[in-house]
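If it is no trouble, might I ask you for a protein's amino acid sequence along with its backbone structure tokens?
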Amino acid sequence: QSLDLGGFMTITDAGLAYLAGMNRMQALSLDFCWTISDRGLAHLKRMHQMKSLSLHGCSAITDAGLAHLADMRQMQSLNLYSSKNITDDGMIHIARMKALQALTLSSFGNMTEIGLARLKDLTQMQCLRLSNLKRIDEAGLVHLQGMTQLRTLDISQWDQLTDTGLAHLEPIKTLQELDLHSSPQITDKGLQHLEGLTQMVSLNLHGCPNIGDCGTGHLQGMQQLRALDLGQCAQVTDAGLANLRNMRQMERLCLSGCDRLTDAGLENLDRMHSLKSLSLSGCHQISAARIAQLRARGVHVST
């Protein structure tokens, strides 16, 4: 029922023919099987009980290949990372998989907001990874609002993502994990749209250089946060850390590259009794004595 062939780069379309009769297959990984193409996926089309399929790095697959998978109506998890030849038309086939709960479409070269619109009726979706989509317009995020069970969303490395785009996330109150790293146009104003996402447990803002103290103020209602990455948010100062001082569930905090922080600012971490990991690399104003105090608490501090 389960088979992991990931990393076997010599597997070809002809090799997949040997799987054609395994109609009870429920989970299959073909990660980094570079030579697999649409012709190979044709051998899988009778696997109607398939629940999990990973094709990470299988960049030869096109929209025509996805057509062979469209009748896998029990599919719950599909990974198409770096399938650069798949376009908006391919989303028509994915949209037929109504049971999908987890979908990875990161590093797609040809997907636009039209493709996102075709996925809007996948209402069972819980985890959606859309990082590094270069052609997509942020207006397409409006199509995610019907995914009322969405817990995890990765829209990192969208150079075109702005504060306006974040407004489309405001109604998705179920979000618990949000990855926005390397989004250079997001500002403090944009984080205001996230204030109502109080179920958030993990937020990644690494490499968002326009986030500062006002931005951390908009996070104060996220009392369930366990992981926060503010790495390279160099505008954050001691005042910004003060906004986080009541986040007592915090376990992992990244402040690398926040070189305006001082020992006084780190006093705001004293209430974070659950803190296990703290990154302070590039924070040159933090003293060795203060780092020693944190380590004495059992916090793993990287510098």
In short: Residues 67 and 93 are 6 Å apart (CA to CA). The chain has a mean pLDDT of 97.
